[in-house]
Specification:
With 391 residues, the chain is of the alpha/beta class. It has 3 domains: 8-50 and 112-224, P-loop containing nucleotide triphosphate hydrolases (Rossmann fold, 3-Layer(aba) Sandwich); 228-267; 270-386, Zinc Finger, Delta Prime, domain 3 (Up-down Bundle), CATH 1.20.272. It has helices at 8-19, 37-49, 54-57, 86-94, 118-124, 151-161, 183-194, 214-218, 230-240, 245-254, 259-267, 269-287, 290-306, 308-329, 342-350, 354-372, 377-386, and strands spanning 26-30, 131-134, 171-176, 200-206, 221-224. Residues 60-110 have low confidence and may be disordered. The protein has a 5-stranded parallel sheet with strand order 2-3-4-1-5, sandwiched between helices. 51% of the residues lie in helices and 7% in strands.
């Protein structure tokens, strides 16, 4: 029972591979944030250990252990996890539908993962000793602000994979944000990919496939997760989450087809309020003078130093706004991302040429690339603001 929405093309492929015992030793799960990469990874970890599988059922599982144990540090306790049980955090952060009493969970025609056996339940709850997740800052103290996945983390999972499975039949490692491995970590992982231990599965999750070493990509089977169509996502939110049709349409647009982001927006009204505040600030900066723009660059640089992901998400908000301006200039308003702000978008579009809009979109993309390459945040963002066309 695959608990992942809108990825039938992948679950059919995995079902076929599982039935003939032809799963690869390593997979690259590629897709935008909140599209369901972590959900699929958890489901795959369940599938290779599920007692409903013919090959797994033939092996005697370890004795049952209490399910009220605390998860080991660094297993599922990612920094951006929301409060609540480990299983709920996994479902909400990765885009998987959390199933409550009486709620139907999407499923495809496959025998595994069953979702009901002790192995599946322990994986979902973050208690399985043969499943480990690493990411930026996993296992670090709370006051440590890491920017990459370090070689020490990779060496730790190498040792983990070389151990005999303790309670399941396959050891699974999930690397969340694989593109954030530093050079030493990536090269260390390459050795494991070239000589994988038996009874192991390595899952690399990334939103930027090109940021990974070509040698790593070539040694993994790629699974591409696709965002859902706006109409399908809107229908889903209205039917299964009792969302108001107007709100469902709005959330479907701003989530860009990523079910996890859409569900989180419905459950957290403050996220929509913050978006409104950020868009209002964006419009003020576009209309303001150099002093305001430099002040904004300083604010964004400070935020970047504290929380890189939050600062980059603001830049992606800018990128989507200017994409909408380009769509208006080209007469394609039906594809607007920020359709609820169509009036100010139309007004700003009248003051700009198509060349100015495309030039600034390129500047935004170069800025994001420079920040990923560890350029000076304050200087990089000030240069961006200098290139912002005057309204």
């Amino acid at each position: 029972m695959w608990q992942i929405y809108g990825q039938d093309h992948l679950t059919r492929q995995l079902d076929a591979a599982i039935k003939v015992d032809r799963l690869s030793h390593a997979y690259l799960l590629v897709g935008p944030p909140h599209v369901g990469k972590m959900s699929l990874a958890i489901n795959m970890a369940q599938a290779v250990n599920c007692l409903a599988g013919e090959s797994n059922a033939a092996r005697q599982p370890a004795p049952e252990r209490s399910l009220d144990l605390e998860p080991a540090a660094g297993l599922f306790a990612l920094d951006d996890a929301t409060p609540g049980p480990a299983s709920n955090r996994l479902l909400e952060n990765s885009g998987q539908y959390a199933s409550g009493p009486g709620e139907e969970v999407p499923s495809q025609s496959g025998d595994v993962p069953c979702g009901d056996c002790s192995q599946c339940q322990r994986v979902a709850q973050g208690l399985h000793s043969d499943v480990r997740i690493i990411g930026v800052g996993t296992g670090d103290d709370e006051n440590v602000n890491r920017r990459d996945i370090r070689i020490e983390q990779v060496r730790d999972i190498e040792s983990f994979l070389n151990l005999t499975p303790y309670e399941g039949v396959c050891k699974v490692v999930v690397v969340d944000g694989a593109e954030l491995m530093n050079t030493a970590a990536a090269n260390a992982l390459l050795k494991t990919l070239e000589e994988p231990p038996g009874n192991s599965l390595l899952l690399l999750l990334t939103a930027s496939e090109d940021a990974l070493l070509p040698t790593i990509r070539s040694r993994c089977s790629a699974l591409y997760l696709k965002p859902a169509a706006k109409s399908e996502l809107q229908e889903r939110l209205t039917r299964d989450y009792n969302a108001d049709p107007e709100l469902a349409e709005r959330v479907a647009r701003i989530s860009r087809g990523c079910i996890g982001q859409a569900v989180n927006a419905l459950r957290d009204p403050e996220a929509l309020e913050q978006r409104e505040a950020d868009l209002q600030r964006l419009q003020e900066v576009c209309e303001g003078g150099l002093d305001m723009r430099f002040d904004y660059a300083a604010e964004l640089a400070t935020r970047f130093n504290r929380d890189r992901d939050a600062a980059k998400e603001l830049l992606y908000l800018w990128l989507r706004w200017w994409r909408d301006l380009l769509l208006i200039k080209e007469g394609a308003e039906e594809y607007l991302h920020n359709y609820d702000h169509v009036a100010p978008l139309r007004l700003q579009a009248t003051r700009l040429t198509t060349g100015q809009v495309t030039a600034f979109i390129k500047r935004l993309n170069r800025t994001l690339e420079a920040l990923d390459a560890n350029a000076n945040p304050r200087l990089t963002l000030e240069v961006l603001m200098l290139g912002l066309p005057l309204a």
